[in-house]
Amino acid sequence: MSNAVNIARRKFLKQGAALLATFAIPRNLESLTKNNQMTNKNTYDVIIVGGSYSGLAAGLALGRALRNVLIIDAEKPCNESSPHSHNFITNDGIAPDEIAMTAKTQVKKYETVEFVKDIAVKGLKINEGFKIETISGKSFLGKKLIFATGITDLMPNIQGYSECWGISAIHCPFCHGYEVQHVKTGVLENGESGFEFVSLISNWTEDLTLYTNGKSTLTEEQTRTLESNHIRIVENKIIKLEHKDGYMERIVFADSNKERITALYAKNLFIQHSQIPEQMGCILTDEGYIRTGNMQTTTIDGIFACGDNSSRMRTLANAVATGTTAGMIVNKELIEEKFLIKRKY
Ligand SMILES: Cc1cc2nc3c(=O)[nH]c(=O)nc-3n(C[C@H](O)[C@H](O)[C@H](O)COP(=O)(O)OP(=O)(O)OC[C@H]3O[C@@H](n4cnc5c(N)ncnc54)[C@H](O)[C@@H]3O)c2cc1C
């Protein structure tokens, strides 16, 4: 991705985040939380915000480590529009909510792990650790915080796109490519990123078009390479995807031309699903992910992040792997603090 696109994207992400934060925090939140007396019941070793694949994986590791854990989840995972999930071993081809439900049932067996359906709206550093406030006016204390909050896809201004998202407008060939092999496929992207993406997708189909949705910013060499590999480049502005129940049939251009299409890969712009990590001082990368070390530590001591919010590797397998790591490392930190051991990572 070019620097200019990166900067524009980053700026857009920030503006979007600020806007969402404004709407997310109710005006009377302060008065609600002041009236909410803290009790021991509101105090945990670890609070996990986000109880989807990565949050549940962290919760499982911590439950097995006998930790008192609270998982706060709004139950809005990013893949809910997809009929099936693929490429996650033991659960290939299963509906996303079924996988999450199995995971939740297994985590619920650990009696030290509690769940609350709510939206966390504010996080504060306090002496003993952290305080999380929710939209319903509750507040909870935790020695450590794990954000497993995911990201929110921002849909491009193309009619019908959001209805197709997760069904025939897709983000990842490893998740969906096998199911749409050898069909009329498009890639919606431009420039360096478009070149890389369309080259990747050529592994799954030979009937491939790169839709730059405006003037191509490919180099001459990239254009020649794509053409010699029989990949079409279409610069027409797209206004609509005609579809039946999310399965796209035709792509409609601003000049009223149409062409047949079955699957369209795209890289959406995104924002963090929760703005709390950034509000609490966690640094984001230029791309908009929470910056983490290889043990899922963020730039704020005691706060961890896992899953989509901190990785370009947008898969269940990665969400679960990073969630498990976060859970295990948080437990390790709590032990080290008890024994006054100096941290080595
Ligand atoms: C359309 C689509 C299809 C996909 N298909 C596949 C596939 O086939 N195979 C595959 O391996 N991967 C697939 N993925 C990727 C996979 O879904 C993600 O990598 C995975 O869901 C990330 O898990 P996560 O726990 O990090 O985030 P999410 O699953 O997005 O969950 C985040 C959770 O945090 C909660 N949350 C956020 N903010 C707050 C807050 N402030 N308070 C309380 N709760 C909060 C949300 O409500 C949500 O429940 C797909 C992704 C998409 C978008």
Characterise the protein shown here.
The protein has 10 helices and 17 strands. The chain is α/β, with parallel strands linked by helices and 345 residues long. Strands 1, 2, 3, 4, 5, 6 and 17 form a 7-stranded mixed β-sheet that branches. A 5-stranded parallel β-sheet has the order 8-15-9-10-11. α3 packs parallel to α4 and α3 runs parallel beside α10. The longest helix is centred in the last third of the chain and has 23 residues. The protein is elongated. Bound molecules: flavin-adenine dinucleotide. The site of flavin-adenine dinucleotide (FAD) has 39 residues, from α3, β2 and α10.
Which features characterize this protein?
alpha/beta; FAD/NAD(P)-binding domain; 17 strands; 24% strand; 2 domains; disordered N terminus; binds flavin-adenine dinucleotide; 10 helices; five-stranded parallel β-sheet; 345 residues
What's the structural blueprint in terms of helices and strands?
Blueprint: H1 3-24, H2 29-34, E1 43-49, H3 53-64, E2 69-73, H4 96-108, E3 113-117, E4 120-126, E5 129-134, E6 139-147, E7 151-154, H5 161-164, E8 169-170, H6 173-176, E9 185-188, H7 191-201, E10 208-211, H8 220-228, E11 232-234, E12 238-244, E13 247-253, E14 258-260, E15 263-266, E16 269-272, H9 276-279, E17 303-305, H10 316-338
Helix pairs in contact: 3-4, 3-10
